[in-house]
């Protein structure tokens, strides 16, 4: 059991890390250590018991594991509640600890309010092989009177004492997601959040923190240095608050966003937060990413080790203009090129000719598919391909049968305008009747057709967040909606376990570890221009493994980028094609077939291997990424050059992840050399502007 109870408290150990907490002399639950695993249990520092200083109470100076709002304490608290009598602070003290062995070893620390019948359990689960600790909390109201929870975060993660850290996070927008940002953390609070009901294109609930260069160990890099990293597994409103106190303490709190949030916890009820997973890597940002990738593949994804098929999706080719004949024409061409999965996107269902109508009416449009979807699916299957379909079940167009029947099913305030975006409104997925209706509709679609892949889209954010007739506090909407989403998707997954789901929200608006318990893939961005995509993919790879990253070759960039470049970019993930194949020349389709054939030979390495980012496309016009199989027997190197002004000498690439003592050969490069040599002496790949290369690496 990697959880140790000692007279100083508890120590959670993973393969390479240690995390310690304990009670201090004042009885507060205090963070003691997080970092490289120490040789002896006695090495872990004792819980600090700071003395009060000036305007600051001892509590203000204590690095508590989960501070509530109480005492003379002004650091960001994790918990804020109002009791039925109007008291607005919460005094939690240690009650008991318990070790559990569930999916992974778990420590539960039970805290109890000193006056009110209110309990909180801090859960710590140890994912030993991945150097990750999972934290979440459960609140329980043991009394008769309701308690209003106004903030309940999943965790506060403490960095080792110090105030010179740097935060790396991701920012973006629709069509331009996942840009890496690095900034110093200074005294005060840095907040990142979503208030959109989705994870959002703009920020992601992920952080990576390294030390600033003034400290002895220096900054972390891609392959070396201390990095503390974490995520929130939640697909709705979230908040990350990175706080540096005036007393050299740095901590990151993460959880459900408290903005416009309240939860009425009735007598006898409990509330559980989503999980936050966090870890420490001594192998820099790359080491942090690989730990997350392995964990996501091994422990979260429904089909984490299945090899994804080469997909064709018609969206960018035909948009809403789909029908049996034109889809079959595309399917025939896709099959000839080696496509294995044909996905029909938006436009197939009742009344859907453009984005003004149809959402909510999930049956085939009678004009476009007079005989239903069966003839198309049968033809696709006869071509040797699987069939997949696009849906957007959380949405409704006012111009739809569903809205005409149930105008009250959308999120709205009765006295306010129902603001439309893309001509659509959001169904209130917090309502069980709405959930049941959608489960029935989509279940029927899946039961009646041979559909093995579903792209679940969500194309707007929430406004006027009203819930007339809400059973509890109407501000529970933000959380109950996501719980409803998980329930609907979970029920469908359970009934159709073989289906592979993709999470899309106008591209990468819903990319998080919560949704990856349901979906195997993420549609990373609506921007499929390959040079932009390189940058987006780099950001995405900080968190997510390549098998979750669906990447299509479309017609974007076709006038200035070779087809090879466009394929190479998409071959770094789960390859798909989305170009208008009817308009492609025979020569293009023949070349595409060759790239698809090559991808099929290397995809097990890309999708399931270790990812090493050798040179950043966000930072350099000449970039490279490498994948290595888990047994280190084979690898693939991709290199890309966008525009570099002449004269240019391209820098060497230093491979990573090979067995230093084994011998390897690399396609198109002379000689057999040791892994050590390829990693230390480097190699060169010569490219002109807008050229790219793929090189297979083989152990000999
Ligand atoms: C947004 C998605 O990101 C696109 O790929 C496409 O499915 C459209 N929606 C369809 O409306």
Give your account of this protein's structure.
The structure is a single chain. With 700 residues, the chain is an alpha+beta fold. Helices cover 20% and strands 31% of the residues. The protein has 12 helices and 36 strands. The strands form 6 sheets. Strands 6, 7, 8, 9, 11, 12, 14, 15, 19 and 20 form a 10-stranded antiparallel sheet that branches. An 8-stranded parallel β-barrel has the order 21-22-23-26-27-28-29-30, surrounded by 5 helices. Strands 5, 10, 13, 16, 17 and 18 form a 6-stranded antiparallel sheet that branches. Helix 4 (324-337) packs parallel to helix 5, helix 7 (432-448) runs parallel beside helix 8 (477-495) and helix 9 (530-541) packs parallel to helix 10 (563-571). It is globular and about 75 Å long. It starts with a strand and ends with a strand. The model has no long low-confidence stretch (mean pLDDT 97). (2R,3S,4R,5S)-2-(hydroxymethyl)piperidine-3,4,5-triol binds at residues 315, 345-346, 390, 457, 459, 504, 506-507, 523, 526. (2R,3S,4R,5S)-2-(hydroxymethyl)piperidine-3,4,5-triol (DGJ) binds at residues 315, 345-346, 390, 457, 459, 504, 506-507, 523, 526.
Question: What layout of secondary structure does this protein have?
Answer:
Elements (H helix, E strand, L loop, with lengths): L2 E4 L2 E5 L3 E7 L5 E8 L21 H4 L17 E4 L9 E10 L3 E9 L4 E10 L4 E10 L5 E12 L6 E9 L2 E9 L3 E7 L11 E6 L15 E6 L5 E7 L5 E7 L6 E3 L4 E3 L3 E6 L2 H17 L10 E3 L1 H4 L5 H14 L3 E4 L29 H9 L3 E6 L3 E2 L4 H5 L19 E2 L5 H17 L4 E4 L20 H19 L4 E4 L17 E3 L6 H12 L7 E5 L9 H9 L2 E4 L8 H23 L1 E6 L6 E7 L5 E8 L21 E4 L5 E3 H6 L10 E9 L1
Parallel strand pairs: 21-22, 21-30, 22-23, 23-26, 26-27, 27-28, 28-29, 29-30
Antiparallel strand pairs: 1-2, 2-3, 3-4, 5-10, 6-7, 7-8, 8-9, 9-19, 9-20, 10-17, 10-18, 11-12, 11-14, 13-16, 14-15, 15-20, 16-17, 24-25, 31-32, 32-33, 33-36, 34-35, 34-36
The chain binds (2R,3S,4R,5S)-2-(hydroxymethyl)piperidine-3,4,5-triol.
